[in-house]
Amino acid sequence: IFTAGLRPHDKMLNLIKSSKIPMMMVEEDSFSVATKINRMLFKIHAEESQKISKIQFKYAQLLDVEVEKLSNKKLYQFIEEWLDTPYELGGEDKSGIDCSSFSGRLEKDIFGLDIPRSARQQYRASKKINIDDAKQGDLLFFKTGRGVSHVGVYLANGYFVHASTSSGVIISNLNEEYYSNRFISAGRIEN
């Protein structure tokens, strides 16, 4: 807490003034104030860590990766909110959504990218990459009908999130036979 140049009491006052720590603590001695501040900061940190780690832990288990590798908390919160949303061709909201609308919304809300509406247009707009180079947020394209007809968003370890016609918004793995047989390419949208 203490930094060079200021007396400990002055440093405490600066810390108190720059935070939401009650001013009644100013009257107490520096050690007592420092102890209370540390407790408050620890409590805030512990509460925040607990909220975040539940989602990180859930998806780390699901994706079979280390919790620390799931640093994009906003992405996994987004997925959590959309998971199990039903599929609807042409749908664009939580009452029903299709694959390209879901990937477009995720890319916009999480990565700030505006991408075309259809899977075919998203395929054309993306830079094709090797699946071994795919990173979180890259698009995965599939041939489930004629040409490029399905899109998902890569997460980690072969897993991707997408709006499936049969199950709605789910997480699947490229190693599943259905998807491995229909996989076309990975693509990256660049600003």
Q: Any key phrases for this structure?
A:
191 residues; 6-stranded antiparallel sheet
Topology:
Elements: H1 8-17, H2 30-63, H3 73-82, E1 92-93, E2 96-97, H4 99-111, H5 119-125, E3 127-129, E4 139-142, E5 150-156, E6 159-164, E7 168-173, H6 177-182, E8 183-188
Antiparallel strand pairs: 1-2, 3-8, 4-5, 4-8, 5-6, 6-7
Helix pairs in contact: 2-3
Taking pLDDT < 50 over at least 5 consecutive residues as the criterion, the unreliable ranges are: none
| Cross-sheet strand order for the largest sheet | 3-8-4-5-6-7
Averaged pLDDT: 85
Q: Which structural class should the secondary elements be placed in?
A: alpha+beta
Structure overview:
This protein is an alpha+beta fold and 191 residues long. The protein has helices spanning 8-17, 30-63, 73-82, 99-111, 119-125, 177-182, and strands at residues 92-93, 96-97, 127-129, 139-142, 150-156, 159-164, 168-173, 183-188. Strand 5 (150-156) and strand 6 (159-164) form a beta hairpin. Helix 2 (30-63) crosses helix 3 (73-82). The protein is elongated. The mean pLDDT is 85.
